[in-house]
Design a protein that fits this description.
alpha+beta; Heat Shock Protein 90; two-stranded antiparallel ribbon; 2 domains
């Protein structure tokens, strides 16, 4: 509740400077309409405005406890789009069972607007861990059974220590990559949505984060 209140206040405080900067950039664009720096500023401000609008909507939906059915395929695509946009230097190896294509096309989970940010938090951490170790890739996998969807992400970093594994998600853990707080916040959101979060070390090295979500079962 404290984080929610703080987020709402920060959103309000950010709105005014973003509008002010946009007005200044618009004035500059009239004098230098094709200047590369001005064009880039306009693009970045548009991203900020969209993100702020999405954040406001997310806060509203969480506050009103509004859940909806979301296609698993859409979540995966948004994750991949996020990586391509924000980490163009990172390669993503994506794995899914070919024979599950028919099932995965229409598979849905019930969630609110906090699900995707919680997943992206974990993805961002995986990328940071990978980069710290000098790698430029991560692995994502999507698997289904009749009742559940399993989304996994593996980085190529140093993995988790036993102490970190025992504390991550339970309380914020000091980390140069900000891993502890991000996982703590994601764990809180995922737990509220009934999502199982498993943190382990991959047998071939690096950390492995696995989410297990119940699928929506439509009566026919």
């Amino acid at each position: 509740m404290s984080l929610g209140g703080a987020s709402a206040q920060i959103t309000y405080q950010l709105a005014t400077p973003i509008v002010t900067v946009k007005l200044l950039v618009d004035e500059l664009s009239e004098e230098l309409p094709e200047h590369p720096a001005i064009v880039d500023l306009q693009r970045q401000l548009l991203r900020c405005s969209r993100s702020l609008a999405e954040f406001r909507q997310m806060v509203f939906e969480i506050k009103e406890q509004k859940s909806k059915e979301v296609l698993c395929a859409d979540i995966v695509q948004q994750v991949r789009d996020h990586i391509n946009l924000n980490y163009p230097d990172v390669r993503v190896n994506f794995f899914s069972e070919k024979h599950q294509s028919i099932l995965s096309e229409n598979a849905k989970v019930l969630a609110d607007a906090s699900l995707l940010p919680a997943i992206l938090n974990l993805v961002n951490n995986a990328i940071r861990s990978t980069k710290v170790s000098g790698s430029d890739k991560i692995e994502l996998s999507s698997l289904f059974d009749e009742k559940n969807w399993q989304l996994s992400m593996r980085d190529f970093g140093c993995g988790f220590t036993q102490l970190t594994l025992s504390e991550l998600g339970v309380k914020p853990v000091n980390s140069k990559q900000g891993l502890g707080m991000a996982v703590f916040l994601s764990h809180a959101s995922l737990e509220r949505l009934g999502v199982t979060l498993a943190l382990t070390n991959h047998v071939a090295g690096g950390a492995l984060v696995t989410l297990k979500l119940a699928l929506v079962v439509n009566d026919t």
